[in-house]
Fold these 2 entries.
Entry 1:
Amino acid sequence: MGAAWQSPGPATYDFRTGVNDGWNASGASGFEAEMGRLTGRDATLFMVFSIMGNQVALRTHLGTPPHSILCDVRSHLVHMETGGAGSWSGALMVTIASSNGLWLTLKYLQRYAVISDGTDFCTCPIKLIHLEVPLGGIVMPLSEVKRICHWARSNDIVVHLDGARLWEAVASVAGTLHEYCALPDSINLCLTEGLGGEVDSALVGNKAYLKRAKWVKKTNSAQYYSMVQYVSSDRSGVLLTKDPGKEMLERYPQLMNRDNVAVSWSPKCKGDKVLGLETMEVAWLSRYIVTSRQSLSHLLDLGAEIRR
């Protein structure tokens, strides 16, 4: 759990619900407004869980097919969301592998983007670009996110950012939360990853978009009528951590030491590679490091050494 739960605070005692209509009571609307201020956007919408945040975001953006979604082949959307983009939004998934082995670039993405007004009725035009930051621990630079979003907007393509772990990208000093959230049309922020919320996520966007997203969310019966326990834990995890990125960095100073970790661990890892690129939020060990009990034991010893 997050640091907010280590000592008594608002979430410890205040579980009053009042008149609960499922939308505005239990502190949900107040928390959504506070999240809007935290991200620098018009509004946010409280979601039951992070996958729903992504799926509601896509369905709200996309109208009637044909339409396609362009995304990284490694995306959580592709591998961990049961094909929801196809079944729920009727979208063709166009997956591409990054040319640099790290993140998608605008130049490479443009090669696969089908832009069509329907004149050629054999095409399935790209209507949405899905980005994930971080993706497998790799943080797409803010400058690349900006290039992609500006190009997409000029071609009437929307951009959704799966920022389930965006807090960690902010903690790695890749950019501020305001900077990342200002660029895409919508952002999904998980409230449990690294922050200590109980469940749920926040869908970030403008008011008109989120008004429709609330409607779409309800079609999937995805609304609690007693949200007080969830709002309390999520609000404490986020808002009592006054600067989530900065305070996560203070809790996990290894994020700033990833290059030092990579340098110091490499000669001790018996030939296994340790990556500590600037584009990563953490230092990554090669897949061979934990293939045996001896390697696992060695890894745990190294972790204890770093913590000291």
Entry 2:
Amino acid sequence: MIREYLLFNRYHNTLSVFLSETGLDDAEPLAKDILEEAVNIIREPRDCLPLLYRFASSNRRDIEEALNTRRVHSSEETHAGTDAQSQYAASRPAF
């Protein structure tokens, strides 16, 4: 999927580095129909977008929900850390 994405966006230099660093420069890419089946995506007749785009699009709601959940937890942790710092500062004797 990454190889197809990089080719589609004409990131040829990035693809070259990616393939050599992953040891995949001599490997044949998997057939698109195998990848589509593995990630449960149905091919549209006129679909020319890379599988990575289609995968992200078909899972957009789940991805957005996961990101929002992460932001909420991160925000709660930040506020909890601030409260803990305030309590610590209040408990220290003033000099």
